[in-house]
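Q: Could you write out the predicted structure for this multi-component system? I'm mainly interested in how the pieces pack against one another.
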Amino acid sequence: MKRTPVIEMKGISKRFPGVIANDKISFRVYPGEIHALLGENGAGKSTLMSILAGLYRPDNGIIKVQGRAVKLDSPRKALEAGIGMIYQHFRLVDNFTVAENIVLGAPKSPSKINREQMETETRRVSQSYGLTINPGARVHQLSLGEQQRVEIIKMLYRGCEVLIMDEPTTVLTPGEVKELFEILRAMSRQGKSIVLITHKLNEVMEIADYVTVLRRGRVVGEDRIENLDEGRLTRMMVAREVAYSQVKRDKSVGQVVLSVDRLKVQGDLGYLAVKQASFDLRQGEIMAIAGVAGNGQKELVEALVGIRSSVSGTVEYQGEEINHLNVRERISLGINMVPEDRIGTGLVPNLSIIDNSILRNYYKEEFFTGFFLNYKKVRRYTEGIVDKYNVYFSDLKHPVNYLSGGNLQKLLLGREIEQKPRVLLASYPVRGLDVAAAEDIYGLLLKERDKGTAILLVLEDLEDIFRIADRVAVMYQGSISGILEVNKTSIDEIGSLMVGAQLTGVENG
Amino acid sequence: MAKIKLIRREKESPLARVLVPVTSVLMAFAVGWIILALAGHNPVLVYQKLYNGALGSSYAVSETMVKAIPLMVAGLAVSLAFKMKLWNIGAEGQIYMGALAASWIALNLGQSSGPWLVIPLMMIAAFAAGACWGLVPGVLKAYWQVNETIITLMLNYVAISWVDYLVFGPWKDPNSMGFPLTPIFAPAAQLPTWGDSRVHLGLILAMVIAIIFYLSIQYTRWGYEVRVMGESSAAARYAGMNVTKNIMLVMLISGGIAGIAGMIEVSGITHRLQQGISPGYGYTAIIVAWLARLNPLAIIMVAFLFGALLVGGFAVQIVGVSFSITQVLQGTVLFFLLAGEIFINYKVVLAHKEVL
């Protein structure tokens, strides 16, 4: 006899302006199962789970809980159906005690509040799952691992049968990760189901019973964990079908423009995000940086353009050290960049297309008449960009917010190219774009390469790397674990470097 | 079953921009009608008094204007800081400091020099004093991420205490019969007025500041930087802008402009420094700035509306409406204006229940 899944999602689609976040996804969770939902950033994991948690409403598709179709149009409805989600940023009241956080606000919590009763309730729930916590402690006194435990108990107290956890281990120390996994196993033994949103393969292998892999909004693979290994998962995550169609090149690679030597860069949380990065970037080549997101790529690129300062090591531009130069001085040398965060960093959401088109060179004389910005000149400049790069818009004076993803990226990349870069860096340039827009973006990058620009792309999709890049540097835990010629390597080799294998070949940089 | 749904407008509608606030004010008066009737007043009579008191005669208009001027200047001051998402709640203290510094010039140079020297000097001193009051939280914010809301708010009490100390002590007029006031300023330190009304040169000054503000935000390099930084500091850093420096500069200018509001109040209206020189203009200015959506030209209009509500409120008290009822009326207008905001960005549609 077949078991009934506790959750069944069928044909779920969700569109955001310019992006299909979920495309006819089907997803099933059985009682007592630890189910890993795996995929790169932007693959649609969080959207799918936010639909399940009642935060978003799907455009199409049905959701069944214990075999009955339900409409989850608010987080409360989802909670009533037994589905709870724990976000990366905990939703706890810092100044309240553990017991208050757990009991207050629950649908069944009594209208009269009794401190002792709350603490007894908390103890009852936590002990039945072997969770140790002091119900009287205030939340701000707890470590992040303990706060997470409070979130878990809170969900159990509210009667959750299915617990969704978004990247639960990112805030934890290795010891806390172990404890968390013990807790999850205990819950699973008592019949609770757990969905883990993650992109960490080793954790998936350790804890999960079943894996569903998403890529570009679709399910690209699912299986029981016994039938999988890290290599196969990597391939599912980053490359469904690899087309070895290298783009033909007209020119050979030129001289070294940018030379990076033993660069160390600090991350936002104070640890070294880039531990060891050395490479040369030459005129007329595209070098890709591959790696699972969060392995130091972002910090490396920011250090190269001057947004983030480096701890040690050197960056040389045409033989001269540029470590001390600020963003603007690097722009004037011809170092341009398309950041990962298009709207918010690369473009200013509430400013017009006109204003955004001069974000990186607004101080130039050519836009001014005397003391004042001459909007006639700026408008002409903007019109030049939108015409040349086929940006579709309704009014140049409207905020860029109203543009679709593809048009935003064309405006952003076009703006950077118009400044005639010698070095162009771009992070995830086609993430979330539809096929046609992605083609446009890659076409522009290849044209730049043929003009002799040195291009560094942070990419996560191996298929794309094989299509467009000449060389690939793989980053793992802040270090470049290998630099390879694209036509002399394989998906398997890159894939294993991405999860920490050492390069055995000769070309180790 | 039909239900009501709010849908975000694709783009801002200029018609809604005008119609929504007008409708809001009308609805506020409709609700005010009920409140007045319940309180046992004749709404027609009260509204008539309100109108007459605020706008019904040239005297009424000029009194409304007198109340509106400091709100305009202080509203412009805080909206500059708000543009950069710096929450300057300290306009009140900056007004007091500006008034203090201007009075110091007036009391020391007013007798011996002409207005062409004294008035500009008062303005410069007021700007400098207000600017200091803005710069302190600005520096703390720029270098150590200290919350500017709290610092600006606390500095208000410091400024008010300084003024109290001076008007009760060293600067007190010997002929004031114990009242906390300085001697009256010499004519050279008084702003010229319009005919025999109390409307003074500050009105022109407010408009000049509004125009300079508008031009520099829209059309200068620095204004462009402020607009970018206010929206996203990540984008500003990516564009190579110096965010730290600009936090301090904007707080300095914002405080300086608020200081000028203090100067025009002592130089144009009271002609002396006295206790309670600002009855909360610095706080009301925050509401004015938000209702005008930080648009400098709209601030002039909204400040006028607030001036009218204040002056009209005094007028209806004469016919026996209690002060609290006039405050309820003012609150109702505010409530509807703020609630109406949503209809500028969203439109209402009737949605039919989706069929699966």
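A: Regarding packing and overall arrangement: The beta strands of chain B are 2-8, 346-352.
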